[in-house]
Amino acid sequence: MQIRVGFGYDMHRLQEGRELWMGGVQLDYEKGLLGHSDADVLIHAICDALLGAANLRDIGYHFPDTSPDYHNVDSKILLRDTMNLIRDKGYILGNVDATICAEQPKFNPHIPSMQRKLAEVMEVDEQLISIKATTSEKMGFVGREEGITAYAVALIQKS
To answer: Exposed (0-12), middle (13-18) or buried (19+): which is 125, by Cβ within 10 Å?
Structure first.
């Protein structure tokens, strides 16, 4: 059995007047993440982890922020298309383990709905999607509540 591991990381600045999307779920918060797409850092990190594991470069290569096709795009579409890319290369998902890093809002109450949504989009069992949330202990741009980061690892295997 051939298994491969990939790592993904993303960050976006928080800004008033934007919707906050995390893990494919819209959250009620006074600020959202700024980006060319809906700026869902969790999905972007997962996409990069999957693409890296399959040696398919990165999210910016496949879905460039210079393309009007991806302006304000729903990141769930990017995740669906990423899953199609890895499946086309003969891989299936083993699991994803991801961490959101933010001071506010608190993401723990939303983790089950994010897991359900991501599993639905990825067409996998939600037990394959692990999501955790932490803070940066008030340090750095995350600690100053200027932005949010997400990290993800993905395990894929030849089907």
So the answer is: exposed
* Phi, psi angles (nearest 5°) of residue 148: -135, 140
User: Tens of pLDDT along 88-122?
Assistant: 999 999 999 999 999 999 999 999 999 999 999 99
The burial of 30, by beta-carbon neighbours within 10 Å (0-12 exposed, 13-18 middle, 19 or more buried), is given as: exposed
Q: CA 68: distance to chain centroid?
A: 21
CA–CA separation, 19 and 154 (whole Å): 27
Query: What confidence score (pLDDT) does residue 159 get?
Result: 87
E strands of the chain, at which residues? 3-16, 20-22, 25-27, 31-33, 91-101, 129-134, 147-158
Using CB atoms within 10 Å of the CB of residue 28, give its burial: 0 to 12 exposed, 13 to 18 middle, 19+ buried: exposed
d(CA 150, CA 128): 18
pTM for this predicted structure = 0.97
Angle (CA) 5-7-13 rounded to 5° is 160
